[in-house]
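Researcher: Structure prediction, please.
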Amino acid sequence: MVQDHLQRIFREIFSDDDLVLTDTMTSADVPGWDSLAHINLIYAVERHFSIQIADDRLAGFASVGDLRRHIEELHRAG
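Model: Predicted structure follows.
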């Protein structure tokens, strides 16, 4: 399940084993989620799921749910 994998990635990137993701969560909800952490997060997601997120989509995710749905779309299309 994409959500479970995302949660593991987020916990690793943000060094928080207690972090619980929700679809409505945004960068403002996660301590340390700044522009550098965002780049690291996207890189880890791309590597883990073997996907490439288009540059024009990188800043367009308003929430964790947006990111999850995009990953699912890429998997269906691939």
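Model: The two ends are 16 Å apart (CA to CA).
Researcher: Thanks, that helps.
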